[in-house]
Design a protein that fits this description.
16% helix; 2 domains; five-stranded antiparallel β-sheet; three-stranded antiparallel β-sheet
């Protein structure tokens, strides 16, 4: 598996492309008709030459959606929520990440989409 590292500039360009695509879909009369882990299907219906024509395109992105508590595909959010115990959690994506309140004494936990748990404490030198 090849890892891709993005710099700040590349990440900003990708974010801008995503915003432009989302704005195009909303202003062009397209509706989301399907989702999967890495895609979203946009579709609109238009009457042309006496027949109903369906126009569709697919937006692709790694980790675009995640399954929510009801088992439905939902758009992922790059959001970390503070927890009452002093820790934090990023749970609106395919991988769930739980941060301890004290990163040096606590344990960072990552849960993969298929339910595998990884835990790691800080390395001290």
């Amino acid at each position: 598996m090849e890892k891709i590292m993005l710099g700040f500039r590349e990440a900003c360009v990708l974010a801008l492309i995503f915003i432009v695509n989302s704005s195009f879909a909303q202003s062009g009369g397209y509706a989301v008709t399907g989702r999967g882990p890495d895609y979203k299907v946009f579709q609109k219906s238009k009457w042309e030459n006496g027949t109903n024509q369906i126009h569709q395109y697919v937006e692709l992105a790694t980790g675009m959606n995640y399954t929510n508590a009801a088992g439905q595909w939902t758009e992922a959010q790059a959001k970390i929520t503070l927890l009452p115990n002093g820790g934090a959690a990023a749970t609106q994506g395919q991988h769930k990440v739980y941060f301890p309140g004290d990163i040096y004494n606590g344990v960072l936990e990552i849960v993969t989409p298929d339910g595998i748990h990884f835990s790691k404490s800080a390395i001290r030198h």
